[in-house]
Write a structure and sequence with these properties.
0% helix, mainly beta
Length: 111
Amino acid sequence: MAIVRSIPSTRIINGFEISTSEIAIISETAYSTRGEEAIIIKSVPNCKLKLDSTTTDHIKIKALTNVLILPDKNRIDEEWDEISVESGACIEFRYAGNYWYIMSSDGLKLT
């Protein structure tokens, strides 16, 4: 299993300076976001991805495997405890007002 990161970058999230990378390629069965702008998940049968609001406020996720997406608190779109996406899906989230909101999706998510 592996995590490959692009060139390091620094972002301000929730008033704190976070050292992260623009893009990360994830090949792990479980992962928590760390301020990346985008992540690509591949080379594992399934992945459980936790959206971490302490390090991330905006993320794009490209799934090349089946991914279960969980918020670190509250619900996604104030409605779902988790979102399941199939291989090939792409989904974008924003954290605002203590909730994770889906801003864009290619429609391949399952609830």
